[in-house]
Amino acid sequence: MTARYEPLRTRLTACAPGDVAISAISFAEIALGSEQGRPPLPEVLEAFLAAIPLVPFDESAARAYSKLPFRRARFDRLLAAHALSLDVVVITNNEGDFADVPGLRIENWTR
């Protein structure tokens, strides 16, 4: 992880097991990139999953998705709906991607 992401590493290290999870939507987006040759390497992604629980996208999330304003970034819309359905915070360094989602809580841990 580059120095740019050191604040993220610090925040993650301070979390207790179970405090942080990854949405199946985020995992799908990252896995797609990995399969296309972008970081992380597949073995790094698997190690991450061994340490961070994966949260399935369920009916509640699908219903929340159907109510969101449309934007081209469907992964972002799916992730926002998933977070809203679980009443959790989205951790992102792309805050603008989620700025128009009513009621969504976001935090940027890279600062």
Structure description:
InterPro entries: PIN-like_dom_sf (IPR029060), PIN_dom (IPR002716), Type_II_TA_system_RNase (IPR050556). There is one protein chain. The chain has one domain: Rossmann fold. Helices cover 47% and strands 9% of the residues. The chain has helices at 6-14, 24-35, 42-51, 59-66, 74-86, and strands at 22-23, 54-55, 89-91, 105-107. The radius of gyration is 14 Å and the shape is globular.
In short:
By secondary structure, this protein is mostly helical.
Question: Keywords for this structure?
Answer:
single chain, 111 residues, mainly alpha, Rossmann fold, two-stranded parallel sheet, two-stranded parallel ribbon, 5 helices, 4 strands, 9% strand, globular, metal-binding, toxin-antitoxin system, PIN_dom, hydrolase activity
